[in-house]
Structures are given as C-alpha cells and as structure tokens.
Amino acid sequence: xxxxxxxxxxxxxxxxxxxxxxxxxxxxxxxxxxxxxxxxxxxxxxxxxxxxxxxxxxxxxxxxxxxxxxxxxxxxxxxxxxxxxxxxxxxxxxxxxxxxxxxxxxxxxxxxxxxxxxxxxxxxxxxxxxxxxxxxxxxxxxxxxxxxxxxxxxxxxxxxxxxxxxxxxxxxxxxxxxxxxxxxxxxxxxxxxxxxxxxxxxxxxxxxxxxxxxxxxxxxxxxxxxxxxxxxxxxxxxxxxxxxxxxxxxxxxxxxxxxxxxxxxxxxxxxxxxxxxxxxxxxxxxxxxxxxxxxxxxxxxxxxxxxxxxxxxxxxxxxxxxxxxxxxxxxxxxxxxxxxxxxxxxxxxxxxxxxxxxxxxxxxxxxxxxxxxxxxxxxxxxxxxxxxxxxxxxx
Length: 395
Prior knowledge:
alpha+beta, Restriction Endonuclease, 3 domains, about 40% helix
C-alpha cells in the first residue's frame, strides 16, 4: 500500500509538471537539508533557472529578492516563500521562508527528489519524492536520468501520449466544481492542452484538418476524464434506488449526446478565427432556424441586396448518416444553391453521397478520413483547409 501511495504522489508531480509553465527538479543535497550543519539559507536552486524565476538576469552584488511566492507542497501544505539571488555568491538562487514547523528540507530528506513547478510568476507547486519507486517513476516519465537533474525539465521530451494524459490529469485534478465544465470551457481546455503538449499551433493555418481532429479527440478524452472525476465516486458508492441510478445514467448519456456536436462547432470556430475568417454562429434565419455558421455574417444574409454568391453557410454534425437532410432548409436564400456540411463521420455509402450531391450538399471532411468514402465521390469532398480557402476566395 505504501508504494501505491508513493506512486500516486509521483503521478501528481508528473501531471503537474506537464501542465506547468516550467518545471525543475534536483536531488536534495546535505546543504539543502541541514545535514552538514551549514548555515546555507533554504534550498539552493540551479543558476540556470534564474531567468525563469525572475523574468530577467539580475546584476551587481546586492541580493535581489522576489517575495510573495505561493507554493503548495505535496498537494497539502502552502507557504509564502521567497527567492533570493546572491550576486556576491556567483549568482546563486536560494528558496527560503517556509514558516515554523515546516516538515521538508530536513536531514532525513537528503537524497530525495525535489520537484518545483511554476504555474505563474508568483504561484508554484512543489513535491518531495522520498522513495526509490516514486523517484524512478518521475524520472522515467520525464525522460530523465539521475544525472540530468538540477536543471529545467524539457517538457517537450516527455512522450507525447504520456504528457497529454498528464496535462489532462492536471486540469481535471485542479477542478473544484461538482458539475462538468460547460462545453465551451472544456473545448477551450482541450485546445490549450493539445497546443501545450504538441506545440503545433501553426497547424491552425498550415494543417487545420489535423488540428481539428486532434482538438476533438483531446476534447473527447478530457470529457471522459472529467466524467470519471465527478461521477465515479457516486457510482462506486452505489444508489439507494433504481430510480436514482437511472436518473444519473440519463443525465450522463444526455450530456454525452449534447456535447459531441457542440464541441465540433467550438473547434471549427477556433480554426476560423485562427484563419481570420469573418463569420457568425447560430444566426436566426427564416422560421427561427439557425445554421451553425454563416459567412460573413447574419446581417449580410438578411440584407437582400448583399450578393448571395458572397455568403456561405456551414452545418457541423459529428455524424450525419440520417441527419444531413436537416441542412436543406436552414436558410431559404440557399434553396437550389450549394450548402456545406462538416462531419467527422469516417465513411458513407455511395447512395447517400449521390443523394447529397443531388441536393447540392457538399461535405467538408478532415483529409485523413477521405479514404473511407466511395472512390467515385472523393473528388466531391472538401477538406477543412479547402473550405477555409473557399471562404477566403468568396469574401
């Protein structure tokens, strides 16, 4: 049981490091813990981290202090601490001010792994990993050898899937609400997480097809993680009645259904904004109908003198095997004209494709999914990048 507890702390340190602005680790030396009886003040931090801590490189010999540093230790104790740079000591940085009865940096922790993660200029989280099991677990996850410590951790070197899972966990673990975040909030988190882990923000313009799929998959996995975080405890405790069980089950199922399509819309909107497209969402057209997207705006659509050939509508449906006909009557001005539908459905029959073509419905499908469609209709598909180019040419 003790080893499991150790690994839980190490997992928390990994997740927190992956979700941080910068992460640092070192093995605590005798001087850090007072084992040598020296008068060193606090823990010595590598000089290589100075710029990350202070935001610049101090100069001169006079000490430079950065006060008001909030640190949460091992997800438990909090301190208001201080970083001090000593020019007279060849630029040493010391972390000090922990308050009375501080339980860490004691002789018994000599040789422990100290992990310090920066989340903002004045907010940090720290972990003291004491056992061999948790130390090795942390180092392996961060792709570090014991000799590669006392420096900033290269977060990009962490295996992508492991880091993605770790960053998601850091978001979920830090969430304090009792209800799921809104779809918009979760989509924003998913984009932040995916961009942080893969650093492919340039794909918004260069490869929007891949970006859309990656964002959506991260969103889906993040939702499942939040679902477990919020509901798993209740499920494990059981239910007093069958009605209580059915009530929760229905709530979860309805949430899953309603969020899928909306998250696709959220990520498409982010791609369109990232490509400087003018558009409006959920514009009310005739009979209170609402296309998911109108380019360039609802005002243009309702202005009869505005050229219809310069207006485009786009519907977004994760799957559209049966529901694609809903787009036919979403905007009267487009009767007899091309209507666009973005979907993540990986395949469709030739008969359905023919029906769509007859109704002037053009599918927008991420490029990686095109091979699942009938060969004779693949040329009728637009990729996400194709659609963005179309809108730019139409404007």
